[in-house]
Each structure stands twice: as structure tokens, then as C-alpha cells.
Amino acid sequence: MSVDKLFYRPKYAQWSYWERELGWDQRTTSYLGYKPLENTYDFVVVGAGFTGLSAAYHLAKIHPSAKIALLDRYLPPLGASTRNAGFACIGTVGEFIADSHLEQRERVWDRMYERWQGLSLLRSILGDQVIEYEPLGGHELFTEQDEFERVSAYLDSCNTALKKRTGLDHWYKPTKVNGYNAIQMPREGQLQPAKAWARFAQLCEQMGIHLAWGRCLVDITKKMDRIKLTAENGRKGAHQFHSSSVILTTNAFSALLDDDVSVSPGRGLVLLTKAIDSQPWQGTFHADHGYIYFRNVGPDRLLLGGARHMDISGETTTQFGINKEIKAFLLRYMKEVIGIDPGVVEYEWSGIMGFTPDKNPVIRADTSRNMVWAVGLSGMGVALSTKLGRQAAEFF
Ligand SMILES: Cc1cc2nc3c(=O)[nH]c(=O)nc-3n(C[C@H](O)[C@H](O)[C@H](O)COP(=O)(O)OP(=O)(O)OC[C@H]3O[C@@H](n4cnc5c(N)ncnc54)[C@H](O)[C@@H]3O)c2cc1C
Q: Looking at residue 2, what is its pLDDT?
């Protein structure tokens, strides 16, 4: 187990804009009902991103009198859930074409539908107002005419497939936006991910779940019908405890605990501008098969992220940090395609995604069925995580 890589503590300057908006500071891990770990539990969930929160929340619904702990190595959690771009999306037509080279088309559409279901579940649990959900719609943007025509050829089949699954029309239609060819996605929305995360954690606390921040799982061993866990807390040292069942929702960091879990890390960079007068891009925007994305934050700011495809091997890492080459690419893109002066960038941060070879998450129980992995959410986990967490809880 290469757990030394898990003990990273970001400086406040590395927090995401979303996390800063919560108004926390870095000195405390006592927010949100923190409790010290006890010695025995019925269920322990390791990793408190959206998937872990959903798993713990649904476990508490299914087993209201069970003793449940949810732990994370840091507060705010240190992966993707509070460091992403906040797109409430199910996938573009361009991404559909790229993914249908990896697996059957029907399966790709099923996954888009699962994202739609996951988003509906997340919104129904948390409420649109508190997560600042805005149904502003989205666009897939094209700078090349022939690429626009190639992708547009799949519009009808995508609309028909999604109508068959959801009963809803009008998923994708061709349009123009700020002079560019685009495919409009009127059903796409956006949210404030850290506020969604904090509300979810608060609900878990209200349901009596033990939330333990600053606890890093460093060892997990099965002994007969019990599982022994060891969690480290830097200064205070290791704490050993037991649980009848465990759900692991450690996403990109899973292979550090068990190298049989085939999830590889993928770092993503996000830049956010200061307020700009008459910021012309409202809604969410995807380009280059989803590798580049941008959106408004409030009416005045612009968030731009992605471009991992500029240095895939450099970004295959569990370490947070800013890739200079990718940042330079994004700044050029901001100037040349988006038409905004890159000098107005105010914040930058990174987050780590967990990718599987076919982009389908891993949901797997061990043979005795008391340990479940629910990991590998890839690039659209805001949408899928709530559903995956519920699936994990339903194993028990
Ligand atoms: C830059 C970026 C932009 C993105 N944009 C979007 C978007 O716009 N829309 C969208 O739908 N998705 C987006 N995603 C993807 C989405 O954020 C993720 O798929 C989703 O948040 C995954 O949730 P999770 O709970 O599975 O994992 P995570 O949020 O990564 O949670 C895993 C948690 O496990 C904890 N952990 C790991 N190992 C241990 C251990 N040993 N002990 C204790 N704790 C541990 C970590 O600290 C972490 O908090 C983006 C991701 C990134 C990085």
C-alpha cells in the first residue's frame, strides 16, 4: 500500500473557489458534526466525496438503527467532488461518438441515461436552491466546420435513444453561439459543487452518521466475519477499529489501497476569472470531445478547465498541482477561442478524477459480500455518483 501518497495537505491557496465560498478556514476539521472514531461499527464508508456521502446516506435510510461512520482524510474532501467544474450534464454528442468506439452504442446511451437519473436523484435529495442549481442549458462548441457536420450527423439517433429512455424530447439541436457552430443541450444545468457537498454532509450528520475528517485509511484486513481498519491522523497517530461491513468510495486513490482495483487517476485543471463586464458566455460549454469545458460562474465570472489531452501521461497522477503546459494551452484558448483576456484569471486549482478503461464505474463486492468498492466515476461523476452510492448501499 503506497499510503504515503495519501498524506497530502493542500495550502489554503490551493483550495477551489467553491470550497472558499463555504467560508471555512483551513485550521479546523471540526465542522459538520465531526466525531472521533469509535472501536466498532456496523458499516464504515471510506472516502467522503459525493459517492461516499450517497452510500452513507442510503445505508442510514435502509438500516436506520445501524452504527455508521463516514471518514475522509481531509476536510474539505480531497479528490474531485468539491474541485470540479459544477456541470450538471450527461454527455455531448461528440463524447458519445468517441465512447462508442470503446463499447456498444446502446451501453453508451444507457450510461447517459444513468447520469440523468443520478442528477435527478441528487437534486431531489438536496434541493435546487441550496446547491445553486441553474438550468441555463449547455452547448457543444465547434471551431471546425467539418467536425461540426460529422458530429451533427448523430443528432437524430442520440435524440431518439434518449427519448426512448426518458420519454423526453429535445436533447440536442444545432445552433450558433457567439459566432460558432454549436449543438445546444437545453436540459443541461450547473451547480455549486461544494455547497451541494456540504448540504449532503449535513444531511448525513442529521441522520446520525459519524463523520470523521482528517482520518486516512492506511490498512484494511478481513478477519473472519469482521473487517479491521487502521486510520492515521498525522499528529494523533493510528487508530484501529472494526466494522461488520465496509464501502470503499476512494475513487482515484483506490489503487493506493488495493492495486487490483483498475482505476487510474487523471488530474484536471480549473481556472476562474475575476468578474468581467458583460461576460458573454452564459451556460455550460464543451469542446474537443469534452476535454475542454467552460461556463459562467454567477453572471460575471468565467470558469475554464480541462485540456488533460495535452499531457495525458503527465496528468496520470494522484498528486495535486498545476501543469504549466496545460495552463498555457488554456490561457491561449481563453484568448483565441473564448475572446477573454487571460490576464483576468484570479483562481486556479486541480482535482483528481478516477478513470476506468471503458468509463463505466466499478461496483464490486468481494466474495463474502461485506466489502464493496464503488469507484471510478470518470469525468462526469457529479451526475453518476449519487446513483452509484445508492447501489453500493443496496448490497446490504
Ligand atoms: C477538474 C475536474 C472537473 C470536473 N468537472 C465535472 C463536472 O463539471 N461535472 C461532473 O459531473 N463531474 C465533474 N468532474 C468529475 C466529478 O467531480 C467526479 O467524478 C466525482 O466528484 C467523483 O466523486 P467521488 O465521491 O467518487 O470521488 P472523490 O470526490 O474523489 O472522493 C474520494 C474521496 O476519498 C478520499 N480518500 C481517498 N483515499 C482515502 C483514504 N485512504 N482514507 C480516507 N479518505 C480517502 C479522498 O480524500 C476523497 O475525498 C470533474 C472532476 C475534476 C477533477
A: 54
Name the residue with the closest Cα to ligand 1, atom 53.
351
Residues in the chain, pLDDT under 70: 1-7, 25-34, 235
Q: Exposed (0-12), middle (13-18) or buried (19+): which is 229, by Cβ within 10 Å?
A: buried
CA of 293 to the centre of ligand 1 (A): 17
Contact 218, 3 (CB under 8 A): yes
Residue nearest to atom 47 of ligand 1 (CA): 78
Peptide bond into 76 cis (omega under 30): yes
**Residue of the nearest CA to atom 34 in ligand 1?**
47
Domain 265-355 bears CATH identifier 3.40.50.300:
no
C-beta separation of 236 from 300 below 8 A? no
Residue 228: all three cell numbers together:
479491521
pLDDT tens-place string over residues 40-49: 999 999 999 9
Question: 32-83+194-263+358-393: which CATH architecture?
Answer: 3-Layer(bba) Sandwich (3.50)
Residue 359, by phi and psi: left (phi above 0), alpha (psi -120 to 50) or beta? left
Nearest-CA neighbor of 304 among 295, 314, 291?
Answer: 295
User: What pLDDT sits at residue 27?
Assistant: 54
* Ligand 1 atom at minimal distance to the Cα of residue 293: 8
List the domain boundaries for the chain.
Answer: 32-83+194-263+358-393, 265-355
- Give dist(CA 20, CA 23) in Å, integer: 6
Contacts of residue 53, Cβ cutoff 8 Å, sequence gap at least 6:
70, 197, 200, 201, 204, 389
**Does the CB atom of residue 83 touch ligand 1 within 6 A?**
yes
* Residue 13 pLDDT: 83
What pLDDT is stored for residue 12 in this prediction? 84
Give the per-residue pLDDT at 23: 83
pLDDT of residue 222: 87
pLDDT of residue 5: 60
Q: Per DSSP, what are the bridge partners of residue 219?
A: 230
